[in-house]
Amino acid sequence: TYYSTGFMNGLLAIYKKKDTSPVILKELFNKGLKVLSHRGATFCTSFTMDKELLYPGSSNRIARLITGSSSVANNTSHIASGNGNLLLFNGRLLNKAELCQELSAKTEQFSDSDIVLQLIKREGCHCFKRLKGFWSLIYLDSENKTIYGARDHFGCRPLYFCNNGEQFALASESRTLYTLFDDIRNINRRTVIDYLLWGNIGQQDQYFFNDIHSVEPSHFVKYEVDSDKLTIERYYTLPYNHSKESYNSNAGKQYSDKLNNMLTDSLQKNMQLFNGPLAIGVSGGMDSSSLLCLAKKLDPQRSLVAYTTTDTYDGGEAYWAEKVVRHTGVEWVKVLCRSEDVLEYLADVNRIHSAPVYNPSSFAQYRMM
Length: 369
Fold this sequence. Notes:
alpha+beta, six-stranded mixed β-sheet, six-stranded antiparallel β-sheet, 33% helix
C-alpha cells in the first residue's frame, strides 16, 4: 500500500524492510512530514494504490511504502502515476516545451511530472540527463519493486537517503531522516574533527552522520526491494576539453559568443516561469552583474529589484554593486549584515542548513533572503 501526502517543496519516502503496523507507519510518516512542513504545507493529498510491494522472501507479508510529495501549483501537478507506478517530482522543467513536442503532447495539458513519467517509461534512468531545470524526484517502480531518487545536474534541489537493516528512506532534508530513525544517528567523528579544526564539511557527502547521505548532483540512487540492493549512479558528466591550445582570437570570440548565448537562453527560460517583479542578489561581481544586466536587456519593462548585503564600515560589496544598479536603473535594497549579528542569528542559519555553516557568505545570504 502506498500512502502519499504532499507538502510544497518537500519529498519524503519511507520503505520499511520488516513488518510494521500500518498505523505506526503512518504516524512515522506524518511525523516526517511535520519536520518538512516549514517548506510550505499549503497543499495536501493522500491516496492508496492497487499494487503492493511484497516483502522480500515472503508471499503473505506486505512491506508498506509511504511517500510524500511537493506541490507548487496545485495538489496533483507534481504527482504522476500509471500502471501502478508513482512519480513524485519537485521542481520545474525549463525544456518542457521541447520534451512535449518530442512526445507529441500538448504543453498545457501535461504537468512536468507527467512528462517525466512518460520519459522514464521510454528511456528509464537515461532520461534524467535530458531534464533541464531545477528538480529532485522519487520514482516508485512497483512492477520491478524498485525505488529511485534523483537530483538535477547542479543539485539545485536537495535530496538525502539512508539505508540500513531497518529501512530505506529518501527525504528533502537530512533533518527529517535524523528525526525519524534513532538507529541512523551515529556521528561521523572524522567530519566533526575536520569541521572544528578547519571549518571544512564541503568535501563530505554525508556531513555529520555516517548513515545519512546526500544524493549528489547529476546522480541517482536505485534501491531494489527483493534483493535489498542499493546502487548509486551518475547520469551526467560535464565534458572537458583537455587538449592544450595556443590562444586564438577567433576561437576566443566563438567561445564567448557561445557562453553568452547559453546564459541568455537559460536566464530567459527561468524568467518565463514566473510573472511579476524579479529579485536578484547583486554582489557587484562578474556573475551577479551579468545576470542583472542581461535580465534588464531581455525584459526592459519588468520590475527588477537588486539586493545587496552591506556592513557598517566600508559598505562591503556595495561599492561595486552600486555601479551596476545605476547602470541598469533598477530598484536597490541594501541589507545590513554586521559581525555582531552573527551570534543572534547563527542558530537559525544552522537550523535552516541542517548543518553548521562553514562560510560567512551563508550568513550574508540568510540575511538577504
